[in-house]
Design goal:
The chain is an alpha/beta fold. Helix content is about 25%, strand content about 20%. The chain contains six helices and nine strands, in the order E-E-E-H-E-E-H-E-H-E-E-H-H-E-H. Strand 2 and strand 3 form a beta hairpin. Helix 1 runs parallel beside helix 3 and helix 2 packs across helix 4.
Length: about 190
């Protein structure tokens, strides 16, 4: 399979965290360049993509399907599985965290290269894998859907079941906003 056709992909956006380091404030609503972080993630996805957001419902300009992991708060692995179960099983699926202000660069990179039967996971400048910046083949998505008991499992343990190809992300694109200080630093670095 060459690069995934933009009209034939699904997407799971993980937006269900507790935002502990944000003192309970919903970090997906933090605004960067006039858009909330969640809206950056949604805008990065192809307009034709079937999109599922995992987390509590919030207003968005793009129509999406909402779902929750079982039980709610069970972590990103359970969230990924819940999102995949809400999508058709014959699509490659973009996996994206909702706290990435440069989501568009990540999605462009994920969809531009050939994808085999496994998963493509983007890495940062240090070579560290970012499991929430990935593209799953239909076979890989089915494998994750069928795993048992993912409550509190790590995404790394989920991807261990897949044939993973690591690919470099554009420099700086994997930087997420884990804390309000991350947001301040990003805003100070902008012209």
């Amino acid at each position: 399979m060459t690069g995934a056709p933009r009209s034939a992909v699904g997407a799971v956006v993980l937006a269900g965290g507790t935002s502990r380091r944000w003192d309970g404030a919903d970090k997906t609503r933090a605004v960067v360049d006039g858009l909330s972080l969640l809206d950056h993630a949604l805008a990065a996805l192809p307009t034709e993509a079937a999109v599922v957001v995992v987390g509590p419902e919030r207003p968005t300009p793009r129509p999406v399907r909402w779902t929750r992991e079982e039980p709610a708060g069970a972590g990103p692995a359970a969230g990924l599985q819940a999102g995949l179960r809400a999508l058709p099983d014959d699509l490659p699926v973009v996996v994206l965290a909702a706290d990435l202000p440069r989501a568009a660069a990540l999605v462009d990179t994920l969809l531009s290269a050939p994808l085999g039967g496994g998963a493509r996971v983007l890495t940062d400048e240090t070579g560290r894998a970012h499991w929430t910046s990935a593209l799953l083949s239909p076979d890989a998505a089915r494998t994750v859907r069928d795993l048992l008991d993912l409550a509190d499992a790590s995404l790394h343990s989920v991807f261990a079941h897949l044939d993973v190809t690591l690919a470099p992300a554009p420099v700086g694109a994997t930087h997420d906003l884990d804390t309000p200080d991350d947001l301040r630093t990003l805003q100070e670095d902008r012209p």
